[in-house]
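yo

u said u wanted the structure for the complex thing, so here. seqs first:
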Amino acid sequence: MSHANSNPIDHPEVQLASPGAYLVAYAAALGAMFLELWLVVAHVLSPISLTTAITVIALLVITVQMYLLFKLDLSKTQIWFTVSFIMTAPLIFMSIGLTIWMFITLMQRTMLPGM
Amino acid sequence: MSSHDNAPVDPNTVELWDYEDHGHDFIGTRTLGFWLYMMSDAMIFAALFAAHGVYVRNFAGSFTSQEVVHPMNAIWPTVFILSSVMTYGLGMVALKKGNKSGVVNALILSFLLGVGFLLMEWREFSELAAMGAIPQMSGFLSDFWTIVIAHAAHVLFGLIWMAVMIVQVAVNGFDQNNVYRLLNLKIFWHFQAVIWVSIFTFVYLFGAI
Amino acid sequence: MLVDLQGPWNPIFGRLGLLLEVHYNNPIIFFAFMMVVIGGTAALSWVTFTGRWGWLWREWLTTVDHKKLGIMYILVGLVMMLRGFVDALMMRTQQAMAVGPDSPGVLGAAHGYLPPYHFDQVFTAHGMIMILLAATPILVGFMNLIMPIQIGARDMAYPYLNALGLWLTVAAASLVMIALFVGDFSHAGWVGLTPLTELPYSPGVGVDYYLWSIQIGSIGTTIGAVNLIATIIKMRAPGMTWGRLPIFTWTTLASNIIALTSFPVLGVALALLTLDRYIGTHFFTADLGGNLMMYTNLFWIWGHPEVYFVVIPAFGFLSEIIPTFSEKPLFGYVTMVLASMAIAGVSWTVWLHHFFTMGASPGVNSYFSIATMLVGIPTGVKVFNWAFTMWRGKLRFPTPMLWAIGSLFLLITGGMTGMMLAVPAINYLVHNSVFVIAHFHNMFLLIVYAAFGATVYWWPKVFGFKLDEYWGKVFFWLFTAGTLFVFVPMYTLGFMGMTRRLDYIPHTSWEPLLLLEVIGTGFYLLSILAFVIQLGVSIYNREKNRVVASDAWGTSRSVEWMTHTPPPFYNFAVTPVIHARDEWAWRREHGLTNLMPEKFLDIHMPKNTAVPLIISFFTLVCGFALVWRIWWLAAATFAAIIIAMIIRSFDKDTDYIIPAAEVERMEKEIVARAEGRIPAGEPAPVGGGAGGAYASKRTPTQRRDND
Ligand code: HEM
Ligand SMILES: [Cu+2]
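structre next:
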């Protein structure tokens, strides 16, 4: 097989590594975590806008990480990584979202304490 | 395109067998397979987060989440784990240059930072246990312990893997197998960081509100 | 940390002391035990006296050949199906005997012959085995067997993990079989109803057997899914574009996307229940902040996608069989692909229809009801596509086609009753009645029909001879009689209000219908007999029914018919170049059916390995130790698994090269054999059933230089 002869370090996925992307992802993630923490302990927002704000920040960080750490894009080497992620992400949101939705309505209708 | 393009075919020139034999992209196949496994793992956490959404207020008269989670403390493991991911990334940069000692050093550094993360978690949970906030107390506590420990188990597994890779790279250098394993471990290590970001936000910070 | 247990426990033997309480004098357990002992001894002595241990080890136990792994998957599935069928026989007869207060009871039962606790274990084992250890392995087996050849690949992306997946499935099946004799099995239904499965209500080891065996099996299935998806994405032959992929390969992809994403959720549901039972957490308890509906929720997040995981490959079988025997290309290829994907997608959004009666808001119920009905659209597209494929085709009706058409009828009736169940207003009436049981058996039988069709269809490809048509037809019609006699009365009983899982029937007016069901079970029994005879007759007459042509049916269309029959272990001497959807039909139409390439190349193949077998053995022991809470053994075997994996990672001698000249020699030999120039009885150095002993015979192996 041809691959046995070429140097594995030349593989495109190895060559994707770039110090800039790692440092930016690091700074972004750490900064966002401190920002979220500050928002929570400083009580500057109402509970509802606080939860929304930190949810949005967390999702943004995850998106940035997906792009910078996993290099998810449409290039030839990465396309299948991206496709499989894009097919899985909705399942994650759906299983969490629908579950919470059904149990909230269940709790409202049954008024069982602690549910 | 269709199954019957009726364009005439010259039986003497049509290429029926692939004499070039391009083989397949071994490293790319291994990393894709591992990424698929990661998607599966992501669904494990999806289920755990779904459960968290349901148990989040089930204190059953025992400790409330505000008494249990301390985001001010949890930020330090966060710093450690994100730094560990960063140093691993720098190791990948060293790999790109074929720098063996660079890779080994980066792995050792990430390993130590990861160990630091686990030690801090250990302290947090021994304190919880000492104050009686054990998983047997309520649905909420069961859920809290489980989701954090599920992540910690990933970190532990990643650390074992890292230790093995340090030896592997030192012994076998950058052969095909080690390169794909380093790439896979990169995926795994970055993945657990994404999970930790979610846990810090949706378990610790939400719990403190 | 650990929970308090009822009954004995000690650090060395865990809870094995409980065994003293098992009633081994019960004739049913005794009979089952004797069957297993006799069967096992017979098999072992056959292997020993014919001197086949080495053969077994080299050819099967350590193989990484996807075709052999596929065959073993199917075999395991068939054996477990037989076990599940025996469970079914017991349920049918018990229900027919225990009607009305005056019905007699024997063997310690008040009515019939199975006391409630035993009856409950029987239906639990039946459901769990049939879905997870019969249907799933059989389908995964076909995917392994056929899909790689269909895409023109020589082996799979992860031959070693593929073997691990198989052996983990075997470990799961073994654990269930061990539960039959060592302790007991869960009595809480195949869905594992909480809080009945919690420790206070199920203090024995039955539920623990259930938990660990499913957990092990589902890890195996997930590993298999990774391998199958990566293979389809990365290992296609040149020219095999997505638009040319055979439909069965597409359905394999769709179905494994489901497996990959849904099995982890099952794993979590079971793991949380395990935590409840082992360390006393409060996930699904009725008190202290537990939420028992959360288990049902997690279970069905997996459960519904799982039913589509098993049905989509069956759709793939139909899409291969029907065009072959209609002598037409499949109608609506693109819509077929889209429909498969759509079904996989929709299957993820409907799970609450299994617990409409939980009492979520009308908004929630309506959403899930509508989502459920949406699946009718892609399914309808498929049914019409098959119908249009047959329309004006040159139809022939050998057994695969009979099974396929039977399958279509079942799909329509089962789908219709599913639609009824999807309406919450109807569902509240028939939920947990035997109407539901009839619905899903109807659906599973569709899969069974398609799988039997696929067996007859691909048998000659795999083994080199056709199955007997006469006994095949007897089998089909007996089986169909069984289906009608069992399930038409069952639908009726469901409407009459009979709930599921009854060990005692209070209404004597249900008796006639229950007796009809017993008659149906009798037909099933006869049909199994016919199947065995069919196999026996076919093997006996194999010389007469020998197939040497690559295309056993003369009208097949896809790439698996483009290699020798049976395929050599390297599948293709030289990787084919694909020019069309239905490549084989294209080549046939252009007169390009010569399979002999002009020159040969070195072939790179994975070597046999015993590591998957060893890891699975440790997993089995670990599972057993966890069931009986023998902590030291569990810890030791778990550590052994990790160490085995690490050791394997240092093994660089994992593949070998077959030189081109050797390939040429083997190819010529295959042709000589096909032309009858080598007597057929001669042991095959290259192609036995589905390959050869090549991978381990080569000593010393040639190393592939690692870069
Ligand atoms: C594709 C093959 C299918 C299979 C293998 C299948 C299998 C099953 C199984 C195993 C159950 C109940 C299990 C239990 O409670 O123990 C079930 C219930 C149900 N099925 Fe299906 N099913 C299939 C298709 C469908 C379709 C097409 C629909 C509707 C459009 C449907 C609607 C339902 C509903 C609503 C229930 C819940 C009934 C109840 O428990 O009240 N199913 N099915
Ligand atoms: Cu369903």
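The domain at 1-230+610-636 of chain C is CATH 1.20.210.10 (Cytochrome C Oxidase; Chain A). The mean pLDDT of chain C is 90.
cya
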